[in-house]
Amino acid sequence: MTVASVCSQSGCPRRALRNGRCDDHARERDRRKQEAHWRSTGSTLAQRMETWRRFDGMCQGCGEPTRRPDTRDDGEQLRPIREHLAAVADGGTDDDENIALLCHLCADVKTADARRRGLSG
Ligand SMILES: [Zn+2]
Ligand SMILES: [Zn+2]
Fold this sequence. Notes:
There is one protein chain. By secondary structure, the protein is mainly alpha-helical. It folds into 2 domains: 1-42, no CATH class; 44-120. It is built from 3 helices and 2 strands; from the N terminus they run ααββα. It has helices spanning 23-41, 45-54, 104-120, and strands at residues 80-84, 99-103. It has a two-stranded antiparallel ribbon. The longest helix is centred in the N-terminal third of the chain and has 19 residues, at 23-41. The protein starts with 22 loop residues before the first helix and ends with a helix. The structure holds zinc ion (2 copies). One zinc ion is lined by residues 7, 9, 12, 14, 21-22, 24-25.
């Protein structure tokens, strides 16, 4: 015999089907997560410039200088990536203390790492 649990959304009396929520609220949560992800990758030029200036354009991974975000990519210089230290999908915020400047090489390594960790659990 199983105890029927109700949706964890306060005030919702429906049966919990997925992730402790009813179907509607589980879907709503998925959508919010997706939007947070889009926000995290869609940083504006102003945000990228601010981050770049805060770190003097230096990659926080390898210490190499990166290209200014408002200059053209000439394919030679390291591209600056505005990186969330804790992924937004994992509850990371858009606050200064959660933002680092990485070059595209270091950002790739970090992303691959996170993906590996995700796979291995
Ligand atoms: Zn619900
Ligand atoms: Zn780097």
